[in-house]
Amino acid sequence: MSVWSWDGVVPAVDPTAFVHPGAVLIGDVIVGAGCYVGAGAVLRGDFGRIVLRDGSNFQETCVAHAFPGKDVLVEESGHIGHGAVLHGCHVGRNAMVGMNAVVMDEAVIGENSIVGAAAFVKAGARIPPDSMAVGSPARVIRALTADEIDWKRRGTGVYQQLAREAAGKLAPALPLDRPEPDRRRVTAPRYDPLTIERRGFSERP
């Protein structure tokens, strides 16, 4: 990882967290136990504090930054999908922000809620607990079922397992000039991340 102090404040990373070497942490950043931070992620704590609480994940190319004097907080088991942007907001426990979504200043995503991919959550918005929010600007379309909340929890569990395994599986390498004839395939987790799309999860009324 690329770690930078800001005005003498140094990022803090729990020893059980995994932060990819290609991630950038700047200033007042706190990464809790068992977190996963993906390649290309940027957590820029120069205006306000960025906190990832235990078991949360912040996937590849995500960005966190804060309006001056405001913090970004991702509560326990929060799940921030690839390419999402968090700016001065609060993501509740076991909530999920979908891929390429944007959550703006002083917005609050309630516990267990899901913000759909590419959604825009405007400044000051409140997404209540156990809700599905989609669109631009994001609006709540329905409550989540217990099965859907459990689906999300299990999906985050995959990233919690990844945080435990990544340090032992990731290693620098040089590219081969051609694939080996008997090239081994990478084994995906048992959990299927496409289940939500296949079920038309965000489409049901």
Features:
UDP N-Acetylglucosamine Acyltransferase, domain 1; single chain; 205 residues; 12-stranded parallel β-sheet; alpha/beta
Secondary-structure map:
Blueprint: E1 2-4, E2 12-13, E3 18-19, E4 24-31, E5 36-37, E6 42-52, E7 57-58, E8 63-65, E9 72-74, E10 79-80, E11 85-87, E12 90-91, E13 96-97, E14 102-103, E15 108-109, E16 114-115, E17 120-121, E18 126-127, E19 131-134, E20 139-143, H1 146-169, H2 195-198
Parallel strand pairs: 1-4, 2-4, 3-5, 4-6, 5-7, 6-8, 6-9, 7-10, 8-11, 9-12, 10-13, 11-14, 12-15, 13-16, 14-17, 15-18, 16-19
Antiparallel strand pairs: 19-20
Organism: Oceaniovalibus guishaninsula JLT2003
InterPro entries: Hexapep, Transf_Hexapept/Carb_Anhydrase, Trimer_LpxA-like_sf
Protein name: Carnitine operon protein CaiE
Please explain how this structure is put together.
The structure is a single chain. By secondary structure, the protein is an alpha/beta fold. The chain has a domain at 2-143: Hexapeptide repeat proteins (UDP N-Acetylglucosamine Acyltransferase, domain 1). It is 14% helix and 31% strand. It has 2 helices and 20 strands. Strands 1, 2, 4, 6, 8, 9, 11, 12, 14, 15, 17 and 18 form a 12-stranded parallel β-sheet that branches. An 8-stranded mixed β-sheet has the order 3-5-7-10-13-16-19-20. A hairpin with a 4-residue loop joins strand 19 (131-134) and strand 20 (139-143). The longest helix is centred in the last third of the chain and has 24 residues, at 146-169. The radius of gyration is 17 Å and the shape is globular.
